[in-house]
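Justification of computing resources. Each target in the renewal requires a structure prediction run like the one illustrated here; the chain below, 373 residues long, is used simply to show the kind of job we budget for.
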Amino acid sequence: MAIGPTPARRGTGAATRSLIRVARYTATRLVAILATMVVAVYIVILIANMGGHVDVIRKAQIREGVGMFFLNNPDVQMMPAEERVALMDQIVALEEERLGLNTPFMIRSFTYLRNALTLNLGRAEQLFSDSGSRQVRLILLERLPPTLYLMFTGQILLFFTAVFTALYLSQRYASTLDRILVALAPTSAAPAWFYGIFLILIFAAVLKVMPFGGMVATPPPAETWRYALSLLKHLVLPVTAIMMGAVFQAIYFWRTFFLIFSREDYVEMAKAKGLSSRTVERRYILRPTLPAIVTAFAFMVIALWTGAIVLETVFRWPGLGRLLWQAIGLYDTPVIVGAQVIYAYLLAMTVFVLEIVYAILDPRVGVGGRSEQ
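Resulting structure tokens:
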């Protein structure tokens, strides 16, 4: 009489198959995300260099700079015209060779791609850090804390205010407060920097109770607590602008989202059982929507890296957004590409982690192409 495998062996075999399926799924998703990131980074390199047109601009700037030097140098002016032109061409050729402009752009673009993927961000061409360094890595690290101060404060307040206010309104549909906040939703159509200009005009120019811009007072306070107070004071207007530019629209979005779940049969049954509104909101509305909330929160955190280009410029905030604006104006390609490469890495890691978090938060999400029915 044949004896089949024992329950212990069957359990071990099922666990092994499950582990292999998870490993295969993880590897497949990781390869797909990395491939997408490589393509995205290469597209950024092409766009930042205008398909090679930036080389033409840089060569013209080099020739113009050498020409201005010759024009202001009496010794060069006394040279014969042929020698002067030959010397200018020689200096221009040496400078182009130093910058690698003597190599076709499409060949250099793959070198740029390799350096970007290995986080060898190189040296900036125009910008530099406060310490005088032209290393792109140091320039970005120097501008990161101001952006995090501003964007983390504003976006965290915006996110949790919108989510919990919308959750509250979803159980009080058509109330007076609900109607007021819905009516205010169109005011979020204007960007944050638009409200920032009016806030500066009212509270800085007219009332003179808030600073016009900057991160701290000039000169910066020596004491730590005074420095912190100055930083908080300078955060008030830009954070308020961020809130005014998006909070009512975000509340309207999440309110509509929560309303869909609040009309489900299991929610009505929970209410019929006499459960409190807080319990219903937490267990039967908030918990099923956690994957969407986690996704929105994760991408909000990633967006902190980019900063707000126009808002930081309006408030003269020394963050990454203003740095990117300056780099674009100066055609400083290494800084532009460096900022976007870091963003691409963070985005890829976020998407990869979210794939795993979904399976943890929602048992209906399967791994390896299988889902729970």
